[in-house]
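Fold tokens
===========
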Amino acid sequence: MLPRLGGVVVVLAVLAGGTGWLFKDELFHPFGDVRACEGSDVRLPDVIRAGGAAIPDGASDVHYFTRNGSAEVTFVSSRIPDFLHRARILPDGAPLFDEKNGTKGVADDEIALPDGLCGPSLRGPVWTYRPTGATGAGISVTVERSPAVNDSFRVPARAVLTYHLP
């Protein structure tokens, strides 16, 4: 009787451990959201919006960190220019790398993400778009530039958005 009970306990332990492993992402991320970084205090919706525009369809490697009414979001996409226009970060017809709208950033091979934001680091060089009150965007965006072509983003490129939550 005792050996059977021991066998049952072992089987139950293995099943419980396996089930826990299957759901580990949901168990150890804030709000059960695998995109949320540790320490986030607000869950973002499934479709993340900034400046009135959703991040690009098909964006991958999405992570976010929220704290005290602000959000930082990082993602990878080949549709960054479209997002910049939809979010009113760049006016229609404006060139991507006009210094009226942004500035060149660090050209280091790896650039750390803002404190608290998880995910892979940015690869330099980068371009940073400043928040603009005139367009109402209020978003800071840093995007990986192509190291070979001066007037182009990497394809796909990692972007980091910083903005205030509504």
Q: What stands out?
A: The beta strands are 49-50, 53-54, 60-67, 70-77, 102-104, 126-129, 140-144, 157-164. The chain has two domains: 1-32, 33-164. The chain has a mean pLDDT of 86. Residues 1-32 form one domain.
